[in-house]
Amino acid sequence: MKKVAIVSAMDEETEYIHQYITDRPGWNKTEENTYTNDEKQLQLFVKVLGVGKVNAAFQTADVVNQYHPDLLVNIGVSGGLAQNVKRGTVAIGKSYVQTDFKPFIKENLPVIKDTSEWIVSGLEKAAQEKNYDYLTGKLATGDFFLHDENERASIIKDFNPISFDMETAAIAQVATAKDTEFAAIRIFSDLANEDATIIAKHEIDTEEEKEIRHKLNTKPTELLVSFLEAI
């Protein structure tokens, strides 16, 4: 049975999984945050890590050590950095970079493997079948909320990523160190610009924005489950 660990920074990013899996034929809840599909020979374990690279790294290490997944998948929201994108576009990770880790000696840069091509192509196929607006590319990570236009432009110039968030590359680094297959599916909740702070404040203050965020967070779950069931 293939074991898959699904991790996120916040509860809102994985809460839909529990509803979606419970209502889906063939799936059964076997333990807290654990689901199995005997026909597909799949077992899913869901874990919220916390926000930021430190939480992401040490919690991911715990997940790998305790659960021993065959595949580790990070899902959640992010800021879009690619040209002509919009809220709701799905970002499928292929490579990963930490934008705020800048050692003096080049050899001290973290080793982060790309996601395996079979995983990337499988996720792309699932996105196409669901008619999702998606991009595949490099996902950037830093321990800060990106909203400054100048900093945004600098990150695009230096790293050419399609999105930015606060955890993915740290999770990918631990997966690499633990020799565990890794994938990431992020959805653009904002465009990592000046409007991002307005959107974030509205998410806290208004029910309308909370509902928008909930709808956004359904896509990574549905995309991932479709991919896993097709393996």
UniProtKB/TrEMBL annotation:
Pathway: Amino-acid biosynthesis; L-methionine biosynthesis via salvage pathway; S-methyl-5-thio-alpha-D-ribose 1-phosphate from S-methyl-5'-thioadenosine (hydrolase route): step 1/2. Keywords: Amino-acid biosynthesis, Hydrolase, Methionine biosynthesis. It comes from Pseudobutyrivibrio xylanivorans. The lineage of its organism: Bacteria, Bacillati, Bacillota, Clostridia, Lachnospirales. Pfam families: PNP_UDP_1. Residues 3-229 form the Nucleoside phosphorylase domain. It comes from the Bacteria. This is adenosylhomocysteine nucleosidase. CDD domains: MTAN.
